[in-house]
Design goal:
mainly alpha
């Protein structure tokens, strides 16, 4: 159940990033395109998605994404 919840949240982030990139292609999010690609991978290649890949995303990539989103929010609210 936890794994499915993590996968679903990554799918949602990927879909949101896809929409953001269409509206603002120059957004300052590291690996924005890879976030969308990860969403597509989870949806279309589910049978080959390992727990190690999910764990790696959570540990290695989400902290930076969180920081960048918080920075963007601060920048936008300061304007």
């Amino acid at each position: 159940m936890l794994r499915r919840a993590v996968e679903r949240n990554i799918e949602i982030m990927g879909e949101a990033m896809n929409r953001i990139l269409k509206a603002c292609p120059d957004i300052r999010i590291t690996n924005a395109r890879r976030i969308v690609d990860t969403r597509n991978y989870i949806i279309h290649a589910y049978d080959s998605l390992s727990s190690e890949i999910l764990w790696s995303i959570i540990i290695n990539h989400l902290p930076l994404l969180k920081t960048e989103v918080q920075d963007l929010i601060r920048t936008e609210t300061a304007v």
